[in-house]
Design brief:
The protein is mainly α. The chain contains 16 helices and two strands. The longest helix is centred in the last third of the chain and has 31 residues.
Length: about 425
C-alpha cells in the first residue's frame, strides 16, 4: 500500500503529541521547587517508557475494539504485542493512540509533585493505563458503553468527544484529585513560600510546546480538509481567549497579571477545546475559551479553601476546563447536516444530556478505580516519601541528582565534587546521622 498524505499527517500528528509529554515535563518542572524539578520531569519521562510498552503489549488491544469482554474493554490478547498488525496501516493509528495514553497518565503526576515515591509512581502508571485509561478509551472511541450502540450511549445518546475531554482531561483530573487526597498535603502547604514555582521560563516553554503539540492532538483524526481547518482555527483561538480571560481575572482579583497565569490560561483553553474542536464554530471556540479561562483561574484557589493539595493544579485546570468543554457541547455544538446540535442551535437538550451522562460516568469510574489502585499501592509500597526526604528534596534523595549547582563547581578555581555523584553521599548521610 502506498504511503498517502493521510498516513503522513497522522504520523506527524503522533510525533507532535509525543512531544507534548516532554513539554509537560518543562511545564510541571518549572512549577515545582528547585529541589524537586528533576523528579517532576522524570515522572513524565518514565510515563513515556512505561505507557509506551504497555500500549504495544496489550493497551492498544484493550482500547481498540474488535473482540471485547462484555462491552467493557477489548480483549488484551487479540492484538497482543501488535503482532497481528504487522504489515497493516493500522500500526499508524496504534502509534497515535499510544501518545494519548502517555500524556493522559503523565498529566496526573502534577497533583502529587514534591512528595511521591518514584517507585510507587512507576508502579501506578502501567496499572492505571491498563485498568482505567484503556477501558474508558474503549467506551468512548472503541464501540463500548458510551458509544452510539453501547449500553449507556444507546440510552443516553452518544456524547461528542473528538479528542479527549472525557478520556484524557476529566479522566486525569479526577485521578489527580484522588491521588492528592490519598497522599496528603505537602509539608508547609499554603504556608511555605518556598513552594512557589522556581522557574517561570520553564513553565512558559512547556506551555509553548504543549500548544504546538496540541495541533496534532486535536487535528490527527481530522477526516477532511474542511474539518482539519476548523480544528486548527479552534485550537488557536480557544487557548488565546482563555489566556486573556485568565490574566484579566488575575488583574481584577489580584491587581496584576502574571506569566504563570498566562501559561496556565493557554493550557486551560487547550483542555476545553479538546472535546469540541471539530464541533464548534470559531466564535464558539472563543466563547468557550473565555469561560474556561475564568473558571480555571478561580478554581485553582479552591485547594487552599478546601484543603486538598493538588500541587500543580491538575484539578483546577484539567478537570474544570475538561468539564467546561465537554458540557459546553450541549449548548454550542454545530448541527450536522442541519440536524441535532446544541441548545443554542435549536437542537434541544438531548446533546446536553448525553454530554452530562458521559462526564458523570467518566468521573465515577475513574474515581473508584483510581481509589482502589492508589490505596493498594499506598498500603503496600507506600505512595509518599519520608518527611526528611521531602525537606531535603526528592531530586537528591530519589535520584542522587540536583538540577542546579548553587555552589562549588564552576564558582571558583577549586573543584568541589558533588556528593551525589562522587560516592560521598552515603558518607555524608552517616556523618549527619552520627551528629
Amino acid at each position: 500500500m502506498d504511503l498517502t498524505a493521510g498516513h503522513v499527517w497522522m504520523m506527524v500528528c503522533a510525533a507532535l503529541v509525543l512531544l507534548m509529554t516532554p513539554g509537560l515535563a518543562f511545564f510541571y518542572g518549572g512549577m515545582t521547587r528547585a529541589k524537586g524539578v528533576l523528579n517532576m520531569m522524570m515522572m513524565s519521562f518514565v510515563a513515556i517508557g512505561l505507557a509506551g510498552v504497555v500500549w504495544v503489549l496489550w493497551g492498544n488491544s484493550m482500547a481498540g475494539g474488535g473482540d471485547n469482554i462484555a462491552g467493557l474493554f477489548g480483549n488484551p490478547m487479540t492484538q497482543f504485542g501488535m503482532e497481528s498488525l504487522i504489515g497493516s496501516e493500522d500500526l499508524i493509528g496504534a502509534g497515535y493512540g499510544a501518545t494519548f495514553a502517555i500524556i493522559t497518565v503523565a498529566l496526573i503526576s502534577g497533583s502529587i509533585a514534591d512528595r511521591a515515591k518514584f517507585g510507587a509512581w512507576a508502579l501506578f502508571v502501567p496499572i492505571w493505563v491498563t485498568l482505567v485509561y484503556a477501558p474508558l478509551a474503549f467506551w468512548v472511541w472503541g464501540g463500548g458503553l458510551l458509544s452510539e450502540e453501547g449500553a449507556i450511549g444507546s440510552w443516553a445518546g452518544e456524547a461528542i468527544d473528538f479528542a479527549g475531554g472525557t478520556v484524557v482531561h476529566i479522566n486525569a483530573g479526577i485521578a489527580g484529585l484522588v491521588l492528592a487526597l490519598i497522599i496528603g498535603q505537602r509539608k508547609g502547604f499554603g504556608r511555605d513560600p518556598g513552594q512557589r514555582p522556581h522557574n517561570i521560563p520553564f513553565v512558559m516553554l512547556g506551555a509553548a510546546l504543549l500548544w504546538f503539540g496540541w495541533f496534532g492532538f486535536n487535528g490527527g483524526a481530522a477526516g477532511t480538509a474542511e474539518e482539519a481547518g476548523l480544528i486548527w482555527i479552534n485550537t488557536l483561538t480557544a487557548p488565546a481567549a482563555a489566556m486573556l480571560a485568565w490574566i484579566l481575572t488575575e488583574r481584577v482579583r489580584d491587581g496584576r497579571p502574571t506569566s504563570l497565569g498566562a501559561a496556565s490560561g493557554v493550557v486551560a483553553g487547550l483542555v476545553a477545546i479538546t472535546p469540541a474542536c471539530a464541533n464548534v464554530s470559531p466564535v464558539g471556540a472563543i466563547g468557550l475559551g473565555l469561560v474556561a479561562g475564568v473558571l480555571s483561574a478561580l478554581a485553582v484557589g479552591l485547594k487552599y479553601r478546601w484543603g486538598y493539595d493538588d500541587s500543580l493544579d491538575v484539578v483546577g485546570v484539567h478537570l474544570v476546563s475538561g468539564l467546561a468543554g465537554t458540557l459546553a457541547l450541549g449548548f454550542i455544538a454545530l448541527p450536522i447536516e442541519g440536524e441535532g446540535g446544541g441548545l443554542f442551535y435549536g437542537g434541544g437538550a438531548a446533546q446536553l444530556g448525553a454530554q452530562t451522562v458521559a462526564a458523570l460516568v467518566a468521573m465515577v469510574f475513574t474515581g473508584i478505580m483510581t481509589l482502589i489502585i492508589g490505596l493498594a499501592i499506598h498500603k503496600t509500597l507506600g505512595l509518599r516519601i519520608a518527611e526528611d526526604d521531602e525537606s531535603t528534596g526528592v531530586d537528591l534523595t530519589a535520584h542522587a541528582e540536583t538540577a542546579y549547582e548553587f555552589g562549588g563547581l564552576g564558582t571558583s578555581g577549586t573543584f568541589v565534587p558533588h556528593p551525589a555523584t562522587s560516592g560521598h553521599l552515603k558518607t555524608r548521610n552517616k556523618e549527619e546521622a552520627n551528629a
